[in-house]
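Data availability (excerpt). The following record was deposited with the supplementary files.
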Amino acid sequence: MKVTIDVETNTQKRDGKLHLDPFEPDNSLVLVGIRTDAGVDYAFPFDHPEHVSKHNYHERVQWFLDEATVLICHNAAYELQWLWECGFKYDGAIWDTMLVEYVLQRGDKQGSLSLEACAERHDLTRKLGTLKEYYAKGLNTNDIPLDELSEYCLTDVKATQELSDLQWRKLNTKEYSILLDTVILTNELCKVLADTYCNGISVDTNILNDVREEFEKEKLELTSQLQKDIQDLMGDTKINLSSPEQLSWVIYSRKPRDKNVWANSYSEYMKDIQWRDLIRLETTTVFKTLAEKCKTCSGRGYIRKTKKDGTPYSKDNKCAVCHSEGFIYNDTKQIAGLKFKAPSSKWASANGFSTGKDNLKHLQAVAKSKEMTQAEQFLSKVIRLNAVESYISTYVNGIEAYTKPDGKLHVSLMQHRTATGRLSGSNPNMQNMPRGGTFPVKKVFVSRWDNGKIMEADFAQLEFRVAAFLSNDGVAIEEVKTGFDVHSYTAKVISDAGQKTSRQEAKAHTFAPLYGATGYGRTPAEAAYYEHFTEKYQGIKLWHTRLAEEALTHRYITIPSGRQYSFPNVQRRPNGGVTYFTNIKNYPVQGFATADIVPVAMIHIHKLLKTFKSCIVNTVHDSIVIDIHPDEEKGVLEIINKTNTELEDLINTKWGITFNVPLLLEAKIGPNWLDTKDVI
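Predicted structure:
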């Protein structure tokens, strides 16, 4: 029997943040709504004041779960975590209508994936809006009259069932049948992610506080150093480092004459000569301004010698503190800042020129290659300060806010937020956590068991190997088979061109050409590598061309797993190029690597861990994090080795694909997530 289910829950705020999960002590399960494939509805109350009967509906709900051949939900991960944590058991097939809707949209989001939006889009039973009035009054779910809550919940399960029926009919058509394998994989992974969420990863709050202190100390030191640098570069011009606009003045020594004119004047496709004219006409130079300490009030006030544009005042300027006059001013006309030139119109913003992280790193590389020591050091500090501030707000504060009373961070992982199928995260977003081994936040994550360990199983160069397979590039395939380290090679090519680059720094450049980037706007050394990559891997270049033609012909592209990406508005450009070309090149590699292959491995490992105490606690792109019980380290290592041995067969069984490049999970183990060491 197919069973459609929906849960209504009581959720509370803690520390100003709404927590929707069952791991908060004050949260509770209020109602479970069920609909059978025969169209019979049931509403089972739990934590509700009108539920005065002594009857416990736990057994009734469990009977439906036991009898279900498939459990239909909208956002199944949420329903499952609540059911499991409330003592219910279910390990059967899942049909998540939200995820199926996502797959059917082929990466081209056609509106919200909420049940309400889906029902409206497909003209199904509409979600009742009566509960919003109660929530607007500050009431919680168990404050709503039981009959209204039951009607609301059963309307949801009816709409969910109708949506699942519509989706199944769609997948049985010639146009959409190819997506069925992706739907199945997505639903299989949904259960694993829900279990991962329930497991949670243990947080050592003492270490977290130590990390916070380290970051706060570093933030103060960097801020102090940058303020001194600013004074040297800008004189007494006050610069707010948190303002991208003002930081832009320092870096580029220019600012827009009129923000609105500037923002509406540029186009990223402007010719270089037009771009240079725009800079000349619509921006103005920032001048270094100098002030002299007031002698009358013993230096407590400052008197500007010149205006901000470097021209003298018509009258003697007054001290801001004691209003003394008569000081001599100098006409310096000295341009302030680092005097970088923005390489292209793509660097323009409404307030001038970009100060984004990637662009600052580019300028830092330029400064390094030209031995501009002051500029390189200044940019290095700015980049690090931005990173530290992000680490504190996103990770330290985020981890603290969302660590539950049980001492665990229950990582929220979602399959439906990205166009490629790559997972995204929230509360906090662990998917964007820096990968480098020096990132100290990772050491707060420890085993839940005394003497337990943390393992990170990470695919070796997965995206490059996937690109080699998808493109059938003979050079790339042969390199992978011989154990070639593509990242070290990238670092060597760039370093030999005059820009010393580490292996870690080189990773971004290795992947960039795979994802459609060119050498335009790069440093000379980086641009040389991008040209070298294109010449070396001709098969990848030709494959990119084939993808573009496929998108133009069909308005979508298909990867070997059957996953599709829609490009309904793709067009040929007048210059022969193709719109959305970057995405066309990007999606297949990211999708097949992290949305298909990693889930196959993760599902397999999860299955093999069923009889273990050890469990998966997180996944970040192409890595899987496992909390290892002290008695099971050897057994978990055997599972990783077994997965490496069987992965190609798993891929062949799943999609009928013979993977012609080796895939390898490299395992590291340590007392915490940071201090892991290679074991495989």
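Summary of structural features: The longest strand covers residues 2-10.
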